Amino acid sequence: MEDNSLSIKNQYAKRALLIINPVSGKKTIIKYVPNIIRTLMDAGYLVTTVVTSRRGEAADFTGELGQEYDLVCCTGGDGTLNEVVTGLANANACIPLGYIPCGSTNDFAASHGLSVDIPSAIDAIVTKDIRTLDIGCFGESYFSYVAAFGAFSWLSYTTDQNMKNKLGHTAYILDAIKDVYKIKPIHLKVTANGAEYEDDYIFGAVCNSTSIAGTIVLPSNVVDTNDGKLEVMLIKMPKTILELDMIIRGIFSQDYSCPLIDFFQAGEIEIDNPPGLEWALDGECKVAYDKVLISTKRSFLHLKG
After folding, report:
1. pLDDT tens, position by position, 84-140
2. How far apart are CA 279 and CA 301, in angstroms?
3. What is the pLDDT of residue 164?
4. β pairing state of 146-150 and 278-281
5. Which CA distances in Å does 167 have to 33, 52, 170, 191, 211?
6. CA 268 to CA 114: how far, in whole Å?
7. Where are the beta strands (DSSP E) in the chain?
8. Which residues, including other chains, have CB under 8 Å from residue 211's CB and lie 6 or more apart?
9. For the chain, how big is the Rg over CA atoms in Å?
10. What's the pLDDT at 189?
């Protein structure tokens, strides 16, 4: 008589942890869960599924359970991905990560060519090879693609989730116009590559991505997401409408020779902040530091998809 238990063990020799954020994006992920599980099972994974109910829970699940699995797979937006990457980094676990993007902006997916079609995304996880990517270290925190401050960096954190679900990128733009009075210059000093940059800035980003906040696109021939370097963009405070126009033209034409934009690459960046400056990591997690060292954890992320 055939030993069915042995047969099942052989069939599902690998284990996958599936982390689901049920409220991300348009909240449509739940109807795809059976298909996601079945696809992973057909690829030889025995699947454990957990559903998050609060901010930070994905990091907890990943950090405490991730090392017991051959694959960690998550659904959600950039914030959920940040939590999972943080959990992996805190555990120092280089476990393959499958990401099914279903948020409102999906900058990480746009930068790495991941499909936002959920069935296509899960198929890619089980069929495509692993890519190694750098992640950013922000003091004792981490980011998968960007740490930012100033104008627009807080938008995806503060914009109402229902508005994001209905309007997508338009929600962020409307929020920016509504709260334009909040934009104030921030004086800070940045040290990198033996050089110092000190000025009044309205926006700054340290990133490992070709897309920031769904509005700023960096040249793909400049950005290498596995080279141990981060891209730094600092936008100075415009004093006239003409200067503001120069900045906007520079950003949308990807011409960063504009004297009002500091743009460079570095492996380590030290930033002296004014007291209490708030940063957003991957558009979600706001933290405040007086001084911070930003660096890379090179080739740490093993992205499958």
Report:
1. 999 999 999 999 999 999 987 788 998 899 999 999 999 999 999 999 999 999 999
2. 22
3. 45
4. antiparallel
5. 24, 24, 5, 38, 19
6. 28
7. 14-20, 45-51, 71-76, 97-101, 130-138, 141-143, 146-150, 186-192, 195-207, 211-212, 216-217, 230-236, 261-266, 268-272, 278-281, 285-288, 291-304
8. 107, 110, 111, 217, 218
9. 20
10. 95
User: Average pLDDT of the chain?
Assistant: 85
Rounded CA-CA distance 76/109 in Å is 11
Whether the Cβ atoms of residue 298 and residue 142 lie closer than 8 Å to each other: no
The answer to whether residue 12 scores a pLDDT higher than 90 is no
For the chain, the straight-line distance linking the first and the last C-alpha, in angstroms and rounded, comes to 40
With 0.90 as the threshold, say if the pTM is over it.
Answer: no
Express each pLDDT in 165-196 by its tens digit: 544 444 444 444 444 455 678 899 999 999 99
Closest alpha carbon to 193 in 231, 222, 224: 231
Per residue in 135-156, pLDDT (tens digit) is: 999 999 999 999 988 875 544 4
CA-CA distance, 302 to 71, in Å (whole number)? 10
Taking the CA atoms of residue 133, residue 298, residue 155 and residue 164 in that order, the dihedral angle to the nearest 10 degrees is 20
Structure tokens at 234: 């600092």
CB-count exposure of residue 179 (10 Å: 0-12, 13-18, 19+): middle
Which token pair is 210?
């070709």
How far apart, in whole angstroms, are the C-alpha atoms of residue 75 and residue 118?
9
135, 300 Cβ separation under 8 angstroms: yes
Q: How far is CA 139 from CA 7, 188, 204, in A?
A: 48, 17, 17
**For range 218-240, the mean pLDDT:** 90
How far is it, in rounded angstroms, from Cα 203 to Cα 186? 8
